[in-house]
Each structure stands twice: as C-alpha cells, then as structure tokens.
Here is the input.
Amino acid sequence: MEFHGVGIGRGLAVGPVLRMPEPLPEPADQPSSLSADAEQERITDALAATAVTIRLRGEKAGGTAKEVLDAQALMAEDPTLADDIAAKIQSGKTAERAAFEAFAGFRDMLLGMGGYLGERANDLDDVSQRVVAELTGVAVPGVPDPDYPFVLIARDLAPADTALLDLDKIIALVTSDGGPTSHTAILAREKSIVAIVGATDATQVADGSTVIVDATAGLVIVDPTEEQLAGVRTELEARSAEVPVPIGPGALADGTPIPLLANLGSATGAADAVALGAEGVGLFRTEFLFLDATIAPTVAEQQEHYTALLSAFPGKKVVVRALDAGADKPLAFLNTAHEENPALGLRGLRALRANEQILRDQLTALANADAATDAELWVMAPMVATVEETRYFAAIAREAGIRTAGVMVEVPSSALLADRILAEADFASIGTNDLTQYTLAADRMLGSVAALQDPWHPAVLRLVGEVGRAGVALGKPVGICGEAAADPLLAVVLVGLGATSLSMSAAAIAGVREELARFTMAQAVEFAGIALAATGANEARAAVLATISKSEQSNQPEHQPSQKVE
Ligand code: PEP
Ligand code: MG
Here is the structure.
C-alpha cells in the first residue's frame, strides 16, 4: 500500500509505525450513582493530580515545552472551570461528564474567538482528556513513549504534543490532517523532523507495520518490499556520507547571490538565526508581540522590541511587517467585528487603515528604532490587494521616516498587477502561504483542503513569476517569505521565477543553501519553466525531479543528488 500527503522538506526515513491513540470516548451523560460530595472529591483530586503530572512532564522536557505545559497545568487549576464543574456535579452529573462538558464549553468559547486563541482549544481538549483518564483510571492519550525509535502516525498533534516529541525516538511523523503551513508542519520544519502532513490515508496503517516515509515525493510506502528497503538504505547511507555545505551566504552554483534570511516572531530568536547563517531577517511578524494585548501597544513599548531586534543584525537587512491582524491572527485592539469569512475581511493593511493611528505609531516606533541602530530597516504592509493601497502605505511609511517601504504580495490581484504595485513600492515580498490559500480558495487552517495548499501549484507559480518579472523590469527586489521558501527544491524554482532573496524558519536555511549551490541560474529558470507547464502541484514537483534525475543519469557533476539526511 502506498499513499500521498504533503512532504515537509526532503527527509527520508524507514521504521515501525506507532499510532497516536484515539481520544477517549465521551463520558456517558447519565445521573451519578454517587453523592454530589463524593463526585466533588473525585474531581478535586483528579484536577490536582492532572496539574501535577503535567507540571512534571514540563520539568522533564524543559525549554518551550515547559512553558506550554505550565500553561496547561494552569488550565487544570482554573477556578472558573472548577466552579463550572462543581455546578454541573450539583445538578447530578458524574465527575467525568461534568469535567468533559465544562472543558468543552471553554473550548468552544476559544474556538469562537478564532485564530491563535482557537488553536489553544486543542490544549484544553488535551487537559480534559487527561482529567477524564485520571478519573476512569485508563491510560492517558498522547504521544506513545516506547523504548525504540518509531514513525509516529497521528491525525494531527496538539502544540503540547509537538513540544514534547522525543527527537531521538521519532524517526518520522505522518499526519492525516494539517497542511504545509499548519503548526505541525512548521514545527517539523523547525526541528528537521522527516514529515508528511495531510496524508488522509495515514490512519489506516496498523501499529507495527514498517513504512518508508519519503518527504521529497510526499509518499508513504507501507510494508515495503526488500528491494524498496535496500534502495532506501543505500540512499540514506549516501546522504549521511555527504559533507554539509559550510555556513556562508546563499548562492547558486554559478555564484549568483541569493540572500537567505530568517522569519522571526520575536527578537529572542535572533541569535539562533544568526548562528544558523541567516543573512538578515526577511519577515519579522510583529503581531506575535501583541497577540495577548487588549489595548494598542505604545510607541515606546514597540520601539524597545524593534531596537532589540535591529541591534542583533548590525549592517544587515531586517524586513519588518506592519501588524498583520485578522483571520488567523486576531488582535483585540484592531478588529473585533464578527466576520463570516475573516480571511476575506478587514485584515492586514485594511485593518490598519481603519485604525490609522495604530499604523502611524508602529511606523514611528520602527523609524525611531532604525535611527538608534545600524541595521538596514525595510518595512512592508501585509495583505495588500490594490495599487491604491500600495500608494497609501508607501506614502504614510515615508511620512513616518521609513526609508524603504514595500508590500507583501499575498493576494492574486497584487501579483497580477505587480508591475503597477512595484512602481509604487520599493520592494515586494511574496507571502506564499496566503497567496496559495487565496489562489486555490483553500483555507490554510483546514486539514480537509490541505492537499490544495501546495505552493508547487502552477497557478501559484505563475503569479510568483508575474511578480518576479515585474521586479526584474523595474529593478526592484522580490523576496519570498512564505513557507515555500523553506522547501529546498521549490526554492530553486522560485529563484528561477525571479525571487531575489528567500526568507524562512532559520532551521531550514542549511537545506536551502545546499540545494541552491547545486544549480545554476540557467537551470533554475529551466526548472521554473517545467513547473509552470505542469497541470498541478504534484505534476510540477514530479516533472522537476524527473528532469534532475535525467541529468544525473547523464552524469553532469552539478546534478549530484543531495545527500542531506534531515
Ligand atoms: C504568508 O502568508 O506567506 C506569510 C508569510 O504571512 P503569514 O504566514 O504570517 O500569514
Ligand atoms: Mg500572510
């Protein structure tokens, strides 16, 4: 049996499957046979025990995992939740049912808020399951922890699960839900886990089956033949023998420089990014600094963050994006109106324009930080759909003292009119996550349409090509800052379409640097042409891979296969 999903990176792995256990069944809604006091005692003990267990897991894991788990422990100790459970017990429910209903109520409330708060709903589900498991004395669902390495198959992972993955044991990760820009995919990329997401058939694989996980092809082979296994072993040996390309500036094989920049959400990631060879920052997502804020941050508060960021990159380019609120990243102080389709609503620059003082304050804080540091600050607007919006942003940015003002191309309309957009802006940066979502009309948060969320799609590539062409014609830089830039082979194609820099999670830089060094600009342009001519995303990827392997067979040295093992 074989099935496909969306491969993250180019890793290859083989090993035995362990599936993430299915969630516990919903506790029956029948009257308790115990007294309310007895049920109350049970739940009080279970909540306390759950909080202790979660905290201990956090202590063991350390780092970010500890933060995630401490937050979960607090959920188990939340007094409002405890009151809600107590009231349900008083009305005759069992402790299990009362806990289940109270947690579900909170979860629905968070989901209703959408975006990042909505994503935390998963964490509440996780705590709820733990409490019910504690009450019923069954094993707690979660990532299996055997004493041997395994391929983890799951529907999707909650942030708490991903933070806790034991990277020495997880050979590969295959999920049936989630797209290439989902939380799980981004984490897999950051941690260099061999991964395939959105593989809907994954849940049919039995525990203990051997699987080959080939992220380059987005392919999972179940119970492979001896011949297939031997082929994988040979390939893995060849890859591990490869000497990694030393850290240095990104460039094609013919020496064309392609700066490799980091995507950051806070200044704390700056040192790691520099250590991994980031030549600057291609996307600083400022909204991450203010997700929990209920009132707009002051100029002084913002200036402090931006100064810390810019100070980490003396003499280097740092591209900061103005607040990108709305849709998956709601900011309470920017847009609270209920929208039926928030991805098509008052988001990005539209929301800033409706709150112009917030935009002005942010630009002022950025200009002040720029004046106080030696980095080369560029500022761009998110979700720009029209030439008029571009003109508006460039004018207001310059008025605030920003020297280089650009726009993100995330909406097909701005890609199609890139020549006119770039006439007004100093640069463009293509957000392939949203550009793919809007081109294919496929919600990037939705697992059921994950297969459509593939930036290899020729429709997306054609739009990228429009922007690249306009950039060349006008002599303006065109960066890529969506997750597509982190896919090594696609990165080469994007350069062939006219991208002049690539920005990605810092952990992905090494793989992209290595791949760029294998090909010349002429080859990148050739691959771009081949991908553009394909009928779909899988066909585009396959056609470029086929061209490369054909060249390898004719023994051209620059086409030696990459041997990196992720
Ligand atoms: C994008 O849409 O590609 C992008 C980089 O922005 P974000 O992922 O923050 O929406
Ligand atoms: Mg975006």
Q: What stands out?
A: The radius of gyration is 25 Å. The first strand starts at residue 2 and ends at 4. Residues 283, 285, 324, 410, 431-434, 481-482 surround phosphoenolpyruvate (ligand 1) (CB under 6 Å).
